[in-house]
Model the fold of this input.
Amino acid sequence: MADFGFNEHHQNEVINYMRFARSKRALRLKTIDSCFQDLKDSRLMEETYTVDEVSDMLDGLQVLVRGEVEMELINTAHTNVLLLRQLFSQAEKFYLRLQTDISELENRELLEQVAEFEKTDFKANSKVNQESSKPKLAPLNEGGVSELLQKEISRLQEDNDKLKARLRTLESQAMSALDDKSKAERALKDLQKSQGDQQEITNLEGTVAAMQADFEKTLNANVASQKDLQDCLVSAKHDLLRVQEQLSLAEKELEKKFQQTAAYRNMKEILTKKNEQIKDLRKRLQRYESDE
Done:
């Protein structure tokens, strides 16, 4: 650490800051890992998926990971500003004006030295630093800034956990709705194979299309509540049962109408005449047999 020109006190301050930064980095990495784990637990429930489903899951994961990384970068920038604020506040008490060289922040050689220090000197000095009690930079408001910052971080983390839980609930409801929609579509295909009434099939297709539109609107609105989804599903099932009942009545009506057609009556008359002719022939045959 001699290359940086630090004394022992400032070296310990750098170690404390690097320990803080490393703990925050590890916490954010755990959060990112949990995003992937949540995706596995909540979405990867089937053996096969379509391209659209995989794309949708990756898009959702991208949004979550991007948000976590962006939040960490913003938090890191704000944390650095707070650190500079402490330094500048102490300097101003002694009427000093500190200057910074932004270009040095991208000095690859210095960055590599810092990385090497973290691997070697940081580990070697960590135990010594824990046993020694060095005074820290005094915040502007006697420790209030650090405490408030920690409370704000805890609050944001809690809100983030609640949002994740809500997202998992909404995804579960959406998957249930899509499953019911698939069942309705399979029922439609079965009816198309077994029924010949095109008009009723068209009505059923319109019903299913309306159901699909309702589902898409509900999903695009992020599924406002579970009760609304359940109401839509119950209504869809009632519509399906009503259409099935209408198809059954239509079949009975068609059979009844067929019996009332002229072709059916003519066929019935022909059969009646044939039966009478057969009876007459049998009577004649019996008379001939009796005469012999």
Observations:
- Helices lie at 8-42, 51-93, 108-119, 121-131, 144-194, 198-220, 226-259, 262-291.
- Confidence is low (pLDDT under 50) at residues 133-145.
- Residues 127 and 211 are 66 Å apart (CA to CA).
- The longest helix spans residues 144-194.
